Each structure stands twice: as structure tokens, then as C-alpha cells.
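Researcher: We're teaching a course module on how sequence relates to structure. For the next exercise, students receive a sequence and then see the predicted structure as C-alpha cells, so they can try to spot secondary structure elements on their own. Here is the exercise chain.
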Amino acid sequence: MVKRPDNRPGLLGAAIVPHAPQFLTLPETEDKAQVGRVNAAMRAIGDKFRALDPDLLIVLSNAHCDDMVVHCVPPFAIHCGTRAEGAGGHAGAWPIDGAAGYALLRHLLDLGFDPAFTLDAKLGTAFTIPLDFCGYPRAQPFLPIFVNAYVPPQPTPERCFAFGQALAHAIEREGRRAVVLASGGLSHYPGTPQYPHPDIDTDRVIFERLAAGNLRYLLSLDSAALDRTGNVECRSLQILAGMIGDRKPDSALFEPSWHHIYAILGWTDLSPVKAENLHYPATAPERSELARAIFAIVDDAASRAAFTQNRDGYAARFELDSEERAALVALDRDTLRERFQINPMLLYQLEARVKS
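Model: And here is the predicted structure for the students to work with:
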């Protein structure tokens, strides 16, 4: 994978990754082979990210009631310090790209969002495990962005999606070339009796939709559904969906455990998505004259009579190329629809009028 040849700013890569604390502690209850598969999949994404040569690494995740819980609980917060204290097996200082944080914060304010910012918030392993497992060295500066997942009232799915859209615009405005790790879930219920029973059925549907490129499916999970299915951390994923839109990942892994459902999806080519072939396509600018000629037959009795009496003469009234003219004169519906992308309903009306 290489960086964009045009070197334009914006998002270069994105990924959804887990951050279960068991990845670090590896208690006897864990399937070591499974953790190895998760690590390998995340390392592969990290390798591809580094090959893209970004100048900004963002980690989207959430606090676990270990910092923003009683004093101030913002829906979204950006770390604008130079360092942050890690936790547990990742204790110690982690370097923060606070300058990028301030820059994106200013753009987000211009775009109608008012995220909080912090200079000294600590980082739980929800932020540092993704870096570690994706193969980033401890010295790699990054930008943590917090979303409130656990402390009601949390931001709605629609607001998370819109925040992601604004964040992507902010990155472009700032001229940065970024990759983003959205860390969370899938289902798990930390601190509750439901913890040993993740919702694999719901998660399998979520994963299949994401793997098919339908990221907007995440918007169907309202706040109650996120809580009920153990997917409150999917708010990070909803932000990512707003950032990159609907697109198929180039890597995907689904790994259920007894306490978490791990989902890993990577997008390492964020070039524009080709539009699907639609039953009712948009009229291309270069076919507007042909569409105008057809609509006149449908809409105007005199034009319809002129076409019926002398098709070649009628076609000559319009600035059509030879192939357009031939298709119109022959009423070649397949060519008009498939090649020239004339709206099928307009062609249906044409055939009905000419036959009447």
C-alpha cells in the first residue's frame, strides 16, 4: 500500500479495533491463540497505516468511568496536551499531538460542534491497547478523542455520525493526512452480571453489515439498543462511520470470546467509492440534450407529431451526436437506458406516448 499519489490532505485509512484489558493481562480464562489472531490482524492494519505515511494518528475511544465521570462529562473531548499518563500495564507517559488537537478543535467550532478539550486527562488502555497491538512504538505521538459511552446521557447515534463528518472536514481543512483507529466493542457488559454473556447474535449482524460496507447500519442502533445489546462503545464506530461513509473494508475479522465479541475491520484505501449502477440513474450533463429531445416528445403534442411523421427530421432539431441520433430514431430503449443512462420512467412515458 502506498500513499496517495496526489498527496491530498484528508483521511488515508481507518479501522475498527477492540481494546479488551485481557489483551494485556492474559489471565488463564483467555484463549491465547485467539488473542494472537487479534494481535496479528491489528498489526497488519498498523503496518498498512504506516505505509500510507500519514502525518496524524487519531485514536477514537471512551473513558471507562476512570476520569470523566463526575466533575465534567462531555459528549466529545479532544486531548490538547503534550503528554498523557497511561494506565495498568501501559502506565507512564504517552506523547500527545496536542497542536493537532487545538487545530481540529478550532475547525470543529467553526463547523458547529463544541467539543470539550483537556490538557491533562489520563488515558485508559482503551486508547493505548490499539496503539500497542497495531504495532506503534511508545514514542509515536497521537491524538486521543474521547466519546462518552458509559455515563448517561450519552450522545445520540445521529450526533456521533455528524461529529464524524465534521471531524473529517476539519482534518481536510487543516491540511493533515490522517489515519484513525476507532476502538470499542463489540458487545460486552463490564461491571454488570451480564458480563459473561455478550450478545453474539446482534454482533454478528452488526459485523456482517459493516463487512458489506453498510456503515450507516450503525445508526439503526439507538441509545436504548446500544445499552441493551452491550454496545455502548459503538459510539466510536458511529463517529468513524460519519468520517468515512459507506464502504467495504479490505480486512475483517470476527472473534467471539466469553466476555467480548471482538471485531476488527480495516480500510486502507479511502479513495472515492465508485457509484453503484442504479435502476434510475442521474442524467449525465452530456446527455441533457438527448433527454430534452425525449421529454419534448412526451410533453408536447406538436413535438410528438413531428417525431411520428419524420423521426430523422425531428432528431436533427437537437444537437445530438450520431449515436444518440440513431438510438432516438430507432427508439432503441436498451441503448438509451443502459449506455446513455436515460431515466427508465422517461423512456416508459416515451413508448406510451408514441404508441398512443
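Model: If you want an answer key for the exercise: The chain has a mean pLDDT of 92. DSSP finds 14 helices and ten strands in the chain.
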